[in-house]
Amino acid sequence: MAESFESMRRRAYLATGESTLEVGGKRVIDRLRIPVTVEDPRSLSVRIASRRPQGQVAVRFDAHACGLVMADGVSARSVRFIHGQSADGRLGVTGVGEGAYVSVINEYLEDGEFRSGGGDAGMVTESEGRRIHVRANGSKPYDRMLFEDVEVWIDLDREVTVTAGALDPYPHFPFAEYLFFESGSDTEGLRGEELQQSVCVRNRSGAIGPKLQEVLGAYHAQGKRLDWSGDRVVQLCADLEEVDENTLVERAREAGVCLMRVADGALLYEPR
Fold it and tell me: Which domain of life is it from (predicted)?
C-alpha cells in the first residue's frame, strides 16, 4: 500500500520543517495561504464545484491577523462554503494586522462533521493574474493524483478598504478552541503559527498518551465538545461562560502539558 499524503507530510515536516510535498511532478499542499497587507487590500470572489454529492465537500476560509466580512455584512474569522448550499460568494478582508493572511482548506463530510487533513487529503493550485484555481482531495479519493473531489476558483480584487488591527483572540466568544499537547522534538524552539502547525500535523490516529487522559476525561464527563485528538494532542472547544481560561491553564499545569489558544496561537502554558 502506498504511503498516505498525511504520513509523507508529517515525515517531511519533521525532516525539513516544510509540509509541502512533491509527488508525481505535482506540488501538493495541505492548505493555501493568501497573504494580505494594508498596502494591497483584497476581497475574494469564490466559486466551488464538485463531482461529489451535494453537501459532502466544502471549502473553509480562515482569517489570520485579519477578519472576513460576508456578503450580508456579517463579520467572521472562519467561513465555510458547502458544495450544493453555497457554491459561490464574496468575502471582504478587514482589520489587517502584521503578517496577515487568509488560509483556504478543503473539507469533507465524515461521521456527520466536516473534517480536513488525514489520509490522502491535499490540494494543488494554479494561478493566472489575480485568479487562483484549486483542485483538492478528501481523505479517501478515488485516485489521489487526480485532485477532483472539489474545485475552487478564487478571484482577488481591490474593492475592500482595510485598516490595521490586532488579531482577536476570542472571535467566537463565549466559545474558544484550545490545544492541549505534549512537547517533543517536533515542537522544540517553535512559537506561534509554526508551533501550531507542527502540533496539528501530528498523526490523528495516534495515542494521546497518559498525560492527556485526565484532561480528556474531565471534558467527556462535562459533555464538552472534543474537536479531535491524536498523537499526544487534544483539541477542545471550551465555553468561557462556564470555565475561564485560568482554569484551563491550571488543568494544563496539573497534567504537565502545554496549552495553546487556537485563534491567535498564544502559548498559555508550557511546562518548565
Answer: Bacteria
